[in-house]
């Protein structure tokens, strides 16, 4: 796994591109895009990640997944939690920051992605033709996941549009700011 500065978690190799492309990308590179955009935490914010087998956290994750996917009972045995905390955008001349998180989890047979959004204040940085003061305009962030083929991918509604700034109010599991997917046998609930 690669935790990329640009709001992407990739497999095998890093994703260096800051201006997002729409899914599906058929380049053979699977990745999760919690908020693929011009993140620049040198200008502000932090990126934290950890792998965990902490039983308390895994119990919380398992309870949530089983609630959202009741036909597939799930007991998590591992999770990767990545948080982009109040991260700035490239070329920023403001104090704006975005806070979002991805949780990848498995029981070694079934795999889920949970995306959480707490505070989204910008959609685009200067590398994607965004405004340096507002963090808006240009090519807005892309959110979802891409399997690397043209079959298994998901674009969260509003991706690469100005509406992505409202992701904290949207959901597929009736929890504002939360999106959950089963990705080993692709399933999206609640859409």
From TrEMBL:
Domain of life per record: Eukaryota
SMART domains for this protein: NIDO
Protein name from the UniProt record: TECTA protein
N-terminal signal peptide: none
PROSITE patterns in the cross-refs: NIDO
Name of encoding gene: Tecta_1
Domain NIDO: from-to ranges: 34-186
GO biological process entries: cell-matrix adhesion
Record-linked Pfam families: NIDO (PF06119)
């Amino acid at each position: 796994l690669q935790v990329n500065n640009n709001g992407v978690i990739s497999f095998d190799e890093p994703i260096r591109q800051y201006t997002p492309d729409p899914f599906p990308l058929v380049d053979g590179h699977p990745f999760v895009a919690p908020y693929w955009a011009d993140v620049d935490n040198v200008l502000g914010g932090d990126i934290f990640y950890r792998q965990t087998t902490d039983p308390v956290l895994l119990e919380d994750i398992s309870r949530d997944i089983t609630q959202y996917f009741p036909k597939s009972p799930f007991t998590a045995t591992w999770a990767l939690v990545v948080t982009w905390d109040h991260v700035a955008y490239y070329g920023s001349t403001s104090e704006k920051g975005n806070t979002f998180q991805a949780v990848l989890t498995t029981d070694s047979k079934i795999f889920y992605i949970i995306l959480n959004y707490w505070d989204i204040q910008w959609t685009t940085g200067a590398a994607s033709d965004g405004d340096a003061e507002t963090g808006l305009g240009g090519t807005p962030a892309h959110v979802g996941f891409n399997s690397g083929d043209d079959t298994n991918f998901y674009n969260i509604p509003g991706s690469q549009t100005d509406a992505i700034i409202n992701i904290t109010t949207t959901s597929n599991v009736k929890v504002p700011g939360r999106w959950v997917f089963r990705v080993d046998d692709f399933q999206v609930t609640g859409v």
